[in-house]
Amino acid sequence: FGCVGVINKDKKLIGIITDGDLRRNMNKNLIKKFIEVQTKLLAPFIPHVSEEIWSEIKGNSIQKEKWPEIKNVDEHINLYEDYIKNVIKDIETVKKLVKDKKMTGIKIFIAENWKFEVLKQKNIKSFLEKHIDKKLFGFAMKMIKKIKGSKILPKDDQFKILKDSINFIEKDTGLKIEILDADKSNDKKAILSTPVKPGILIW
Questions:
Q1: How far apart, in whole angstroms, are the C-alpha atoms of residue 119 and residue 127?
Q2: Rounded Cα gap, residues 159 and 178, in angstroms
Q3: Torsion angle, CA of 45/16/12/193, rounded to 10 degrees?
């Protein structure tokens, strides 16, 4: 079942990268490496198909190849991927809730600066008293308790990842995407955003 999930994910990605601009910007060496590794991983389960693919791309038998080795893994890459997957998942959840409403686009609100900064503080209560409205104090404490200890991407990184992935997200969701700073908005979804869960507004 895990293999099926990976294959379906790849089909979606392949469908997206066939767009002209994205296809031209693809790293050919990376794609080639990806195909080679995936073919090796699938060989025990679909040996005949894997053998055919391998002979086409390498000109010899996959039976002579070694199992792929895991080298140094950049943990940030996993964080980035999980972040995008969670954003898309949240968008799909919101779409289901407003399924009877005509949808044009999506606003994604990256949380306010104080929500990132408060997690670094030793005296949280003092920090909150100086930086937020008293009406938000209860929400802030609940948010901190819920996400304390989580691996959190810096705000700038979240903006960059979303901007880099905007074509992917638009293709996947079928909606126009706007990426906004919650510090510059009074929208309820902006106020409810957190460092691990951007606010999602469908309009």
A1: 10
A2: 11
A3: 130
